[in-house]
């Protein structure tokens, strides 16, 4: 998908950690990165991943952060200042356990949803887009 976006006309793709959305009279005019670089834009798409208000849990201890040693983004506070409601989803990585220490005969299988749920509201539209753009035959 990144390669497709990078080749799209009239689209300039940037990657970085945004610390602030810059607005003027209630309209977005760009963003500022954690390195202090301002990037002007008429439109901003936020793909935050798990770093907005991210928390690391190690044993009984918690601290702000993303993956180990990565900082959480300060963008959440900025979005709240702009009037957005900001929440958190649990996206944690399960504990790493030594398989030799588990009695699997006492465990039950927990299958996923069938059919699997999607991350889109209109799955038919997503499916037809994939077939058109990725040259996937119907039914595959």
Structural description of this entry:
This protein is α+β, with helices and mostly antiparallel strands. It has one domain. It has 3 helices and 5 strands; from the N terminus they run αβββββαα. It has a 3-stranded antiparallel beta sheet. It has a two-stranded antiparallel ribbon with strand order 4-5. A hairpin with a 2-residue loop joins β1 (18-24) and β2 (27-33). It starts with a helix and ends in a 6-residue tail after the last helix. The model has no long low-confidence stretch (mean pLDDT 80).
Draw up the topology in text.
Blueprint: H1 2-7, E1 18-24, E2 27-33, E3 38-40, E4 55-58, E5 61-64, H2 75-81, H3 123-134
Antiparallel strand pairs: 1-2, 2-3, 4-5
Distance between the termini: 19 Å
Helix and strand run:
HEEEEEHH
Total count of domains: 1
Radius of gyration: 21 Å
Please summarize the sheet with the most strands.
Answer: 3 strands, antiparallel
Throw out a few tags for this protein.
140 residues; alpha+beta; 3-stranded antiparallel sheet; 3 helices; 18% helix; extended
């Amino acid at each position: 998908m990144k390669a497709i976006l990078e080749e799209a006309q009239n689209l300039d793709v940037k990657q970085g950690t945004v610390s602030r959305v810059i607005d003027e009279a209630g309209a977005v005019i760009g963003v500022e990165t954690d390195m202090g670089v301002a990037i002007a834009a008429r439109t901003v798409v936020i793909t935050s991943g798990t770093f907005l208000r991210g928390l690391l849990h190690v044993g009984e201890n918690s601290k702000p952060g993303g993956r180990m040693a990565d900082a959480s983004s300060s963008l959440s506070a900025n979005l709240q200042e702009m009037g957005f409601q900001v929440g958190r989803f649990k996206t944690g990585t399960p504990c790493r356990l030594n398989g030799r220490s588990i009695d699997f005969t006492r465990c039950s299988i927990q299958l996923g949803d069938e059919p699997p749920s999607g991350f889109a509201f209109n799955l038919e539209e997503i499916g037809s887009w994939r077939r058109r753009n990725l040259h996937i035959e119907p039914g595959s």
